[in-house]
């Protein structure tokens, strides 16, 4: 279930907006310069690799890159690995790192081929935070310089295309603002909407 909630920046009140309608989500984010769209979801075979994800979505990624000028496309995958004793610790550290407000020098785009993640975007002002829980088939573009944070879930399990201008433009700049600590994680938000 793709979900958008617009929450007060205090993180304490009821949502100002809750919707699962893709057109409404695109319109709401678009007003603030962010982008949301749905791509046709394609089947990933069991045991798929990065090249399989790139191959399945090459046409869409090339179209998007041509349209936006964002030319660097990579696959980002995380999945539980019981054979790696460090996996749980590394997954937790990664989740904790990106659940802190930061910015990027260029637009940052994620397309989810599998799994879900949450984006917390401070788009227009210091009064609200747009929280988008993305599902397979969702593409979200966070404009350059927009303060945001990212939640990959308690047990990260996703495959995504990550699209941006160039590898060095993806470096994040953490703001030091503790705002993310006032907001629920993705699982908590989803539990309240059921």
Task: Characterise this structure.
It contains four helices and twelve strands; from the N terminus they run ββαβαβαββββββββα. With 194 residues, the chain is of the alpha+beta class. The protein has a five-stranded antiparallel β-sheet with strand order 2-1-8-7-10. A five-stranded antiparallel β-sheet has the order 3-9-6-11-4. The protein has a two-stranded antiparallel ribbon with strand order 5-12. A hairpin with a 5-residue loop joins strand 7 and strand 8 (128-134). The protein is globular. The termini are close together.
SSE layout:
Elements: E1 3-8, E2 17-19, H1 22-31, E3 35-38, H2 50-68, E4 72-78, H3 87-98, E5 102-104, E6 108-114, E7 117-122, E8 128-134, E9 138-142, E10 147-151, E11 158-164, E12 172-174, H4 186-192
Antiparallel strand pairs: 1-2, 1-8, 3-9, 4-11, 5-12, 6-9, 6-11, 7-8, 7-10
Report low-confidence residues grouped into runs of 5 or more: none
Structural class: alpha+beta
What's the SSE pattern? EEHEHEHEEEEEEEEH
Beta-strand percentage range: 25-35%
- The span between the termini is 10 Å
> What radius of gyration results from the CA coordinates?
16 Å
In short:
This protein has helices spanning 22-31, 50-68, 87-98, 186-192, and strands at residues 3-8, 17-19, 35-38, 72-78, 102-104, 108-114, 117-122, 128-134, 138-142, 147-151, 158-164, 172-174. With 194 residues, the chain is an alpha+beta fold.
Notable features of this structure?
194 residues; alpha+beta; 5-stranded antiparallel beta sheet; 4 helices; 12 strands; 32% strand
């Amino acid at each position: 279930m793709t979900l958008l909630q617009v929450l007060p920046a205090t993180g304490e009140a009821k949502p100002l907006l809750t919707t699962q309608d893709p057109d409404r989500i695109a319109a709401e984010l678009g007003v603030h310069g962010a982008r949301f769209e749905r791509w046709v979801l394609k089947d990933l075979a069991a045991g798929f690799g990065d090249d399989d994800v790139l191959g399945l979505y090459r046409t869409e990624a090339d179209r998007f890159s041509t349209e936006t000028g964002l030319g660097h496309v990579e696959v980002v995958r995380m999945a539980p690995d019981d054979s790696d004793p460090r996996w749980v610790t590394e997954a937790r550290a990664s989740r904790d790192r990106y659940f802190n407000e930061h910015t990027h020098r260029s637009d940052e785009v994620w397309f989810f081929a599998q799994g879900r993640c949450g984006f917390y975007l401070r788009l227009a002002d210091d009064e609200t935070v747009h929280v988008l829980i993305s599902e397979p088939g969702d593409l979200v573009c966070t404009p350059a310089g927009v303060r945001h944070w990212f939640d990959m879930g308690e047990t990260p399990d996703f495959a995504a295309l990550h699209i941006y201008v160039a590898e060095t433009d993806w470096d994040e700049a953490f703001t030091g603002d503790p705002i993310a600590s006032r907001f629920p994680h993705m699982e908590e938000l989803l539990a309240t909407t059921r």
